[in-house]
Amino acid sequence: MLAKVGADLYRLWFECEKLHIRCTEKKLSNIDIQMVDTIVFGDVDIDAFTLLEKLFSDPKGALTIVDTIKDEGEDWNKFAGMLYWSLKISLFIVDVYTHGVHDSKEIAAQI
């Protein structure tokens, strides 16, 4: 699990909590490698915002990022979640800006 998650204690706690919830719901007393591989997200070095930016400015660069994710065996669910989150935040920023909020501190406070 440490090899997959890394040494960040917050992430370790979060991933252990997910395993705990799964065991509680399924009434399981043991955690095996298959459960860790299914439930626990690996550490993704590629920033979803970078991919989002490349999707609109450099499609070939975006494909390179996707290939890197695939080649490194990263967890697609986690990366898709990160991409969704970055897209959602970006759209929210655009929405707030078009409604007249132009101060970056105010936009950050609303987010």
Which features would summarize this protein structure in a list?
single chain, 111 residues, mainly alpha, 2 domains, 0% strand, extended
Mean model confidence by pLDDT: 81
The number of helices is 7
Report the sheet-strand fraction.
under 5%
Q: Using only CA atoms, what is the Rg?
A: 18 Å
In the predicted model, the low-confidence regions spanning at least 5 consecutive residues are none
| SSE class | mainly alpha
Q: Report, as a whole number of angstroms, the end-to-end distance.
A: 33 Å
What does this structure look like?
By secondary structure, this protein is an all-alpha fold. It folds into two domains: 1-43, no CATH class; 45-111. It is built from seven helices and no strands. Helix 4 (48-57) runs antiparallel to helix 5 (59-71) and helix 4 (48-57) crosses helix 6. It is extended.
How is this structure best summarized?
The protein has 111 residues and is mainly α. The chain has helices at 2-5, 9-26, 33-39, 48-57, 59-71, 76-98, 104-110.
Topology:
Layout: H1 2-5, H2 9-26, H3 33-39, H4 48-57, H5 59-71, H6 76-98, H7 104-110
Helix pairs in contact: 4-5, 4-6
